[in-house]
């Protein structure tokens, strides 16, 4: 039996595992089959329910219909995002979708750190509402899944199928790295997938409402996130 790929040995083992990426899913299904057979049911998909997330959920459901999916519910998402999650729950009833909340309510956060922390200290806000909750979910987990794609941004262009994740001291598996924006939409339309209606209104990347605007530049799909600041990531992918 193959050695388990863990945070400690991923540098040595990842390069010995080969996935072909010239099939219809550019390797995604092969990677998912490997990931679920390798890590079993403890594997968690942290999904933001953007269009990549919708595609990845559809692929995951073909491999493991009871897969664990976690949504970091900051209490600051758009109503359209929550509506979409309800539709996904209907379409894939066996999936285990957890709405993971931060330990502080918005009121408690405002009391401790001031109103609208996302304006005064967005990194602190992301730490409380996203990073710490995901840390709790991943504590003890060897690996997790993410929908990162290489062409999403400069900071994601070197992502591999299997990555050492120093942030959460685990292995991050990214099946969609070779998918382009067009591939994602082609798959979503071909398979009649529900998606967040904000995508039709100029929002290619959708996060919390206070920190998400329509994209300024469609060559940079994340250009509508944290506009007016130098922040480009919430801190989950460093
Ligand atoms: Fe806070 Fe904005 Fe981060 Fe959401 S994206 S957790 S509102 S700073």
TrEMBL record:
[4Fe-4S] cluster binds at residues 125-126, 208, 211. Its cofactor is [4Fe-4S] cluster. The active site is at residue 234. GO terms for molecular function: phosphoadenylyl-sulfate reductase (thioredoxin) activity. Pfam families: PAPS_reduct. It is found in: Cytoplasm. Pathway: Sulfur metabolism; hydrogen sulfide biosynthesis; sulfite from sulfate. Its EC number is 1.8.4.10. Binds 1 [4Fe-4S] cluster per subunit. The keyword Metal-binding applies. The keyword Ion transport does not apply. Keywords: Cytoplasm, Iron, Iron-sulfur, Metal-binding, Oxidoreductase. It catalyses: [thioredoxin]-disulfide + sulfite + AMP + 2 H(+) = adenosine 5'-phosphosulfate + [thioredoxin]-dithiol. It comes from the Bacteria. Residues 42-214 form the Phosphoadenosine phosphosulphate reductase domain. Catalyzes the formation of sulfite from adenosine 5'-phosphosulfate (APS) using thioredoxin as an electron donor. Belongs to the PAPS reductase family. CysH subfamily. NCBIfam families: APS_reductase, cysH, PRK02090.1. This is Adenosine 5'-phosphosulfate reductase.
């Amino acid at each position: 039996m193959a050695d388990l790929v863990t945070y400690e040995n991923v540098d040595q083992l990842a390069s010995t595992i080969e996935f072909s990426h010239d099939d219809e899913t550019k390797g995604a299904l092969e990677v998912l089959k490997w990931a679920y057979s390798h890590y079993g049911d403890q594997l968690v998909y942290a999904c933001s329910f953007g269009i990549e997330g919708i595609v990845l959920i559809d692929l995951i459901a073909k491999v493991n219909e009871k897969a664990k999916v976690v949504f970091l519910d900051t209490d600051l998402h758009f109503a359209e995002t929550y509506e979409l999650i309800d539709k996904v729950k209907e379409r894939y009833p066996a999936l285990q979708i957890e709405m993971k909340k931060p330990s502080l309510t918005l009121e408690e956060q405002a009391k401790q750190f001031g109103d609208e922390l996302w304006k005064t200290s967005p990194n602190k806000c992301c730490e409380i509402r996203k990073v710490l909750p995901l840390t709790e979910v991943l504590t003890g987990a060897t690996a997790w899944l993410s929908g990162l794609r290489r062409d999403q941004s400069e900071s994601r262009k070197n992502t591999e199928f299997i990555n050492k994740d120093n942030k959460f001291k685990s292995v991050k598996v990214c099946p969609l790295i070779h998918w382009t924006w067009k591939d994602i939409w082609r798959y979503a339309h071909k398979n009649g997938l529900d998606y967040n209606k904000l995508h039709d209104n100029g929002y290619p990347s959708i996060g919390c409402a206070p920190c998400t605007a329509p994209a300024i530049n469609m060559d940079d799909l994340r250009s509508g996130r944290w506009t007016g600041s130098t922040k480009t990531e919430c801190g989950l992918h460093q």
